[in-house]
C-alpha cells in the first residue's frame, strides 16, 4: 500500500573499484570530511555509509549546465563506500547487492584494473546500473584547476597538450570497456544511456566533476529506477558492523533499505554462537547528514527512521550479533519464534559455505565480511584453516588451537583479525605454546604468520 512515484526513498549508491582509485576521497570531497586520512594504511576495510540529503546535492550541482530543468524527486542518496583491496571481494559483493545504482571508480592514469573488472562483473551479474567516475584528472599533464564549473567547460579550457592526454587516456579506457563487452562514452557524448555506460571525469582532490557526477546519479536514478525507489513498508535491513561505543555499549550499524525502524521495536538477529537474540531498540542514532556512519560522530537520536538510511542501533545484548546478515522485526509475540528460525537459517547458510581443512590455523574476525575477506586472502596464499569464528579470542579458542599444535606445530596458531584477545586467553596461550597474531590489517597478519612459519623450519 501507499507505494507511489510521489513517495520515493533515497537511492542506495555503492562506490566500487580497484584499490586506491579514490573511492573514499570522492566521498570525502563530497562531504568535506577527511575519513580517508584516518584509515589504517589509507586502506578501507569496512563498508561505510553516508546520508546525502537532496539539499546538499542541489547545492553541489548548481554549477552543472542545464540542471535548472531537473526536478529533484528523490529525497537524497545513501552512499556506501567499499574496500578496493583484492581480499575484500565479499564486502564488494555485499555492497553491490544492497545498492540500487553504483559508481565504478577508475583511475584515469591506470585504466581498468583487476578489481575494477571484478566489480564490473558483480554489477553485470546483478544487472545494477552504474556510472563511471574517471578519477584523478588533476594528474593529467599541466592540468589547471577550476573546480566551481561544469567539468565539460573545465576540460575544454585546458591547454592542447592536456586535452590531448585526456582524450588519449579516455579512448584507452573506452577500449578496455569494449574488451569487457561494454559500451562506454563520456557522459556528454553518450549516444544512448540505456546501452552505453557514462564516464564522468572527476578529481577527488581538486573537486572537478563532482557536481556532474552527482547530477548524473540523480537524473539516472529518477529516470531509470523510479519504480524500484518507491518506498515500501516491507522491512529490508542489513547489519553492516557491530561496534562498542563508549557510553552506548555495543551498537550495530545498519543499512535500512526499505521499511522503517522505531524506537522500542523488537528486533531479531543471528548471533555468533549459532543462535539468535531478541531485543528492543533502545535508541536509533544517525550521524549528522554528510557524515560517515563508520566513523565515531555526534549522533542524533530519532524516534523513527524511514528508509533508505544508514543508522546505528543501540540495544541490550548486541555483543554477539553478526554483521552481514538481515535484521528482522517481530511485530507481535507470535512472530518472534518465526523470526528466530529465519535468522538462524540465514547464518547457517552463510557459514556452511566456508570449507574447512583438517589441519590449519584458527581464524577469528569481527564480522562475517572481514572473516570472509581474510579467508579469501588465506586461500590465495595457500594457508589452510581448520576453524573459523566471529568474535573475541577466549580461553576455549586457545584450547582448540593447542590440539592443532599436537598435529602440526605451525597450525597451533590463531589469526585474530580486528578482534580482542582476552587476557586470560593470552596467558593460557603463552603457557601452551599457542601463537596468537593480532592485527587490523590483513597483510600484517599474513606477514606475522609467514615469519613465524619460517622460524619453525
Ligand atoms: P581503498 O579503499 O583502499 O580501495 O582505496 P580508495 O579507492 O578509497 O582510494 P583512496 O580514497 O584511499 O585514495 C587513494 C590515494 O589516491 C590517496 O593517496 C588519495 O589522496 C589519492 N587520490 C584519490 N583521488 C585522487 C584524485 O582525484 N587526484 C589525485 N591526485 N589523487 C587522488
Ligand atoms: Na586507499
Ligand atoms: Mg577507500
UniProtKB/TrEMBL annotation:
Record's GO cellular component terms: mitochondrion
Main location: cytoplasm
Transmembrane feature ranges: none
GO molecular function, one term: GTPase activity
Compartments where found: Cytoplasm
Keywords, in A-Z order: Cytoplasm, GTP-binding, Hydrolase, Initiation factor, Metal-binding, Nucleotide-binding, Protein biosynthesis
Residues covered by the Tr-type G domain: 8-225
Family the UniProt entry places it in: Belongs to the TRAFAC class translation factor GTPase superfamily. Classic translation factor GTPase family. IF-2 subfamily.
Protein name: Eukaryotic translation initiation factor 5B
Species in which this protein is naturally found: Cloeon dipterum
Classification of source organism: Eukaryota, Metazoa, Ecdysozoa, Arthropoda, Hexapoda
Amino acid at each position: 500500500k501507499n507505494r507511489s512515484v510521489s513517495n520515493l526513498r533515497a537511492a542506495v549508491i555503492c562506490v566500487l573499484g580497484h584499490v586506491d582509485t579514490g573511492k573514499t576521497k570522492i566521498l570525502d570531497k563530497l562531504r568535506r570530511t577527511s575519513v580517508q586520512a584516518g584509515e589504517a594504511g589509507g586502506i578501507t576495510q569496512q563498508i561505510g555509509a553516508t546520508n546525502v540529503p537532496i539539499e546538499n546535492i542541489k547545492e553541489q550541482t548548481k554549477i552543472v549546465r542545464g540542471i535548472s530543468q531537473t526536478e529533484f524527486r528523490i529525497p537524497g542518496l545513501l552512499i556506501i563506500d567499499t574496500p578496493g583491496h583484492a581480499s575484500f571481494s565479499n564486502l564488494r559483493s555485499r555492497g553491490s547487492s544492497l545498492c540500487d545504482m553504483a559508481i565504478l571508480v577508475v583511475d584515469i592514469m591506470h585504466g581498468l584494473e583487476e578489481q575494477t573488472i571484478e566489480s564490473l562483473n558483480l554489477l553485470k551479474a546483478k544487472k545494477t546500473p552504474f556510472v563511471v567516475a574517471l578519477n584523478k584528472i588533476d594528474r593529467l599533464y599541466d592540468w589547471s584547476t577550476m573546480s566551481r564549473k561544469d567539468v565539460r567547460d573545465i576540460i575544454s579550457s585546458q591547454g592542447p597538450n592536456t586535452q590531448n592526454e585526456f582524450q588519449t587516456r579516455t579512448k584507452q579506457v573506452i577500449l578496455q570497456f569494449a574488451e569487457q563487452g561494454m559500451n562506454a562514452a563520456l557522459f556528454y557524448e553518450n549516444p544512448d544511456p540505456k546501452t552505453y555506460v557514462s564516464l564522468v571525469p572527476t578529481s577527488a582532490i581538486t573537486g572537478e566533476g563532482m557536481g556532474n557526477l552527482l547530477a548524473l546519479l540523480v537524473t539516472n536514478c529518477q529516470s531509470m529506477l523510479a519504480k524500484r525507489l518507491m518506498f515500501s513498508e516491507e522491512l529490508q535491513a542489513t547489519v553492516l558492523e557491530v561496534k562498542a561505543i563508549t557510553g552506548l555499549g555495543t551498537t550495530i550499524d545498519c543499512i535500512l533499505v526499505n521499511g522503517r525502524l522505531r524506537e522500542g521495536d523488537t528486533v531479531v538477529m543471528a548471533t555468533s554462537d549459532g543462535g539468535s537474540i531478541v531485543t528492543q531498540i533502545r535508541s536509533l542514532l544517525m550521524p549528522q547528514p554528510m557524515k560517515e556512519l563508520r566513523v565515531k560522530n555526534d549522533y542524533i537520536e530519532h524516534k523513527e527512521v524511514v528508509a533508505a538510511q544508514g543508522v546505528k542501533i543501540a540495544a541490550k545484548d548486541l555483543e554477539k550479533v553478526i554483521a552481514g546478515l538481515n535484521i528482522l522485526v517481530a511485530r507481535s509475540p507470535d512472530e518472534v519464534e518465526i523470526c528466530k528460525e529465519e535468522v538462524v537459517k540465514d547464518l547457517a547458510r552463510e557459514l556452511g559455505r566456508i570449507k574447512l581443512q583438517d589441519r590449519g590455523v584458527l581464524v577469528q574476525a569481527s564480522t562475517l565480511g572481514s572473516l570472509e575477506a581474510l579467508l579469501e586472502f588465506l586461500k590465495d596464499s595457500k594457508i589452510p584453516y581448520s576453524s573459523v569464528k566471529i568474535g573475541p579470542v577466549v580461553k576455549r579458542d586457545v584450547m582448540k588451537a593447542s590440539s592443532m599444535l599436537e598435529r602440526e606445530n605451525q597450525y597451533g596458531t590463531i589469526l585474530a583479525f580486528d578482534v580482542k584477545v582476552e587476557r586470560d586467553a593470552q596467558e593460557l596461550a603463552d603457557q601452551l605454546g599457542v601463537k596468537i597474531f593480532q592485527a587490523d590489517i590483513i597483510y600484517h597478519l599474513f606477514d606475522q604468520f609467514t615469519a613465524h612459519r619460517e622460524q619453525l623450519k
